[in-house]
Design brief:
Blueprint (H helix, E strand, L loop, with lengths): L1 H13 L9 E2 L15 E9 L5 E3 L3 E4 L15 E8 L14 H9 L4 E5 L2 E5 L9 E2 L9 E3 L18 H13 L13 E7 L3 E8 L19 E6 H6 L5 E3 L3
Parallel strand pairs: 5-6
Antiparallel strand pairs: 1-13, 2-3, 2-4, 2-5, 6-7, 7-8, 9-10, 10-11, 11-12, 12-13
């Protein structure tokens, strides 16, 4: 409860607005582009615990939705690292039922800590040791029901074939859409660079590609790494029935 109050007060302190900025596009087999309106400002904050069992924040670090580099954690003597809070720009998740990107979870796993991320007026939390699709709201948000298939943790070998027959068309669509993005390099379109998560909310099958970090790349926040960028493609059941080639595209959290 104390962390919840701290997080809400910190959102107000750093001045991140609670609005809606559409990041959704509709990919098809013709080229689409990312960041048509440029990057957005995001902030990262280390969360520390002290010997008395209380929590506090380090200074806010500025970055963008593309790249946010955190300094090394520096808890006070006798204290410990308790997590990372990612304060995002206002955004529209276009219905995707998860709230923390695979690459953000991979960053938290690199430090073996908790990650919390703002989305609108809510904050969602993921424990690095939990299955990758497990998130909990800390400020009253509602977790929508869904099924998922994919890695236990964010950094895992991707599927070469979707594990369930009914979601294979969504995977084929997502791979085609990834290949059709016009302004990311070919090196970031290699499927082996990604972990893949499938989420079925009953109306749409979502495919999230979560990039790994490069061999000599220090873990960081932001949706883009040397090997790829975090992206979500949505293929609706209606489109599947009609074998449509258009769908939903969340270019970055």
């Amino acid at each position: 409860m104390r962390l919840k109050r701290l997080a809400l007060s910190f959102l107000a302190l750093v001045g991140i607005g609670i609005g809606a900025v559409a990041l959704a596009q509709t990919p098809s087999l013709k080229p689409v582009v990312v960041n048509q309106t440029g990057p957005y400002t995001d902030k990262g904050v280390w969360i520390y615990g002290n010997a008395a069992g209380k929590y506090g924040y380090g200074p806010a670090v500025d970055g963008t939705n593309e790249l946010l580099i955190m300094p090394a954690p520096s808890p006070s003597p006798g204290g410990s690292l308790a997590g990372i809070l990612l304060i995002r720009h206002p955004s529209d998740p276009i219905g995707y039922p998860l709230h923390i990107a695979l690459v953000e979870k991979l960053f938290a796993a690199s430090y073996q800590t908790t990650i919390e991320a703002s989305e609108g007026g809510d904050i969602w939390k993921h424990e690095f040791s939990d299955p990758v699709a497990v998130e909990t709201p800390t400020t009253g948000g509602t977790r929508l029901p869904f099924q998922f298939w994919g890695p236990f943790h964010a950094d895992a070998v991707p599927f070469q074939l979707a594990p369930e027959p009914e979601i294979r068309p969504a995977f084929e669509f997502a791979k085609s859409a990834l290949g059709a993005i016009g302004n990311i390099p070919a090196s970031q379109k290699i499927l082996a660079n990604y972990g893949v998560l499938f989420v079925d909310d009953g109306d749409t099958v979502w495919v999230e590609f979560g990039p790994r970090f490069g061999l000599n790349e220090a873990p960081h926040l932001g949706c883009q790494t040397q090997l790829g960028r975090d992206m979500v493609f949505g293929y609706t059941k209606k489109q599947a029935a009609t074998k449509g080639t258009s769908g939903k595209f969340l270019q970055c959290f």
